[in-house]
UniProtKB/TrEMBL annotation:
Transmembrane segments: none
Subcellular location(s) of the protein: Cell membrane
Major place of residence: membrane
Protein keywords: Cell membrane, Lipoprotein, Membrane, Signal
The name this protein goes by in its record: ABC transporter substrate-binding protein
ABC transporter substrate-binding protein PnrA-like domain boundaries: 58-357
Organism annotation: Planomonospora sphaerica
First and last residue of the signal peptide: 1-24
């Protein structure tokens, strides 16, 4: 079902010549103009006097139970609290070109959406190009600092710091002294997750074995939306002796969880608290998640944009600022929480410097 939605939405975004028809279309897939949470239950949303907001998802889109869903949560909160006049959500497809991403952003800008949020570093070039074409439109991009401009806000995170904490958790919980990392696509951003995870595990047990591999290599970004491949890779790691696996692979993480459940091992989620967002039958295998508060960043940008105070350039959401963290849902890390919080305090205080690169 997700793949069908992706295909349909990618086709919509590419149809630049059908701008007005696309901008006016309804439905839950590529247009979000529904009532705010709580409608019909006694609570009322603010009057729709705010801006028209466009949001362009990365591969996987709303429903990936991870990165994109965190961005969607920020948008949903803005709908409920800021009285947005209208919203439109468009999704990316596997294997699409930068030109397709540019056209998606251009579609939103030409349709009067302002501000526009691009979710994911893959939009770096397209955001920089389209933002120069529409200097009066405010753009934000999540996970990228390279796209700079007077109307571009960069929402970036210290993923390595949050990953250190779950790496420490993995080492503390591993019974085989062997853990693993599954990355979606081998990029500098995902390398940050691996670097932090490895550093955290080795801070606890210097001799621990840490396996790491990636599902695809650029320009192939399908590794963020290939659960079958995620499952196969995780099965290989489990067969090789790992008993805790951390993924930073977007929608492919569901396959990792399936493999972990079958092996009666432990998994670590990413971006969202996946013990809440993953498929119900898989939630129990997720002992913790590295929470990356994309929802907070998206909401804060939209709030600032609505007030006319959105600033250009990077805003960094690190551990000290509460931008990353680890989850405790399910109680599986309650027995090691004091140790994890000790690491958390030391990183925030600058006593521990977490590497942002594996080499």
């Amino acid at each position: 079902m997700l793949q069908n939605r992706l295909g349909k939405l990618a086709a919509t975004a590419l149809a630049g010549s059908m701008l007005m028809g696309a901008a006016a279309c309804g439905g839950s897939d590529d247009s979000a103009t529904t009532a705010s949470p709580g409608a019909g239950t006694g609570s009322a949303a603010p009057a729709a006097t705010g801006p028209k907001v466009g949001l362009a998802y990365d591969i996987g889109g709303r429903g990936d139970q991870s990165f994109n869903d965190a961005a969607a949560a920020g948008l949903d909160k803005a709908k409920a609290e800021l009285g947005l006049a209208d919203t439109k959500e468009l999704e990316a497809g596997n294997g699409e070109t930068e030109a397709a991403k540019e056209e998606r952003l251009r579609l939103l800008a030409q349709g009067g959406f302002n501000p526009i949020i691009a979710v994911g570093f893959a939009y770096s070039g397209p955001v920089k190009k389209v933002a120069t074409e529409f200097p009066d439109v405010k753009f934000a991009i999540v996970d990228d600092e390279a796209a700079q401009g007077p109307n571009i806000s960069n929402l970036v995170f210290a993923e390595h710091e949050g990953s250190f904490l779950v790496g420490a958790a993995a080492a503390l919980k591993s019974e085989k002294n062997h853990v693993a990392f599954v990355g979606g696509v081998r990029t500098p951003l995902i390398d940050k997750f691996q670097a932090g995870f490895t550093a955290g595990a080795k801070a606890v047990k210097p001799d621990i074995k840490v396996d790491a591999d990636y599902l695809s290599e650029p320009p192939d970004f399908s590794g963020f939306n290939d659960p079958a491949k995620g499952k196969t890779m995780a099965e290989g790691m489990l067969d090789g002796g790992a008993d805790v696996i951390y993924h930073a692979a977007g929608g492919s993480g569901g396959g990792v969880f399936e493999a972990v459940k079958a092996a009666n091992a432990k998994a670590i989620g990413v971006d969202s608290d996946q013990a809440k967002t993953a498929a119900p039958e898989l939630q129990s295998v997720i002992m913790t998640s590295m929470i990356k508060k994309v929802d907070v960043a998206v909401f804060e940008f939209l709030k600032a944009a609505a007030a006319g105070s959105a600033k250009a350039g990077p805003t960094v959401y690190d551990l000290k600022a509460g931008g990353v963290d680890y989850s405790t849902t399910g109680g599986q890390v309650d027995d090691i929480k004091a140790k994890l919080d000790e690491y958390k305090q030391k990183i925030s205080a600058g006593e521990i410097t977490v590497p942002a690169k594996t080499s």
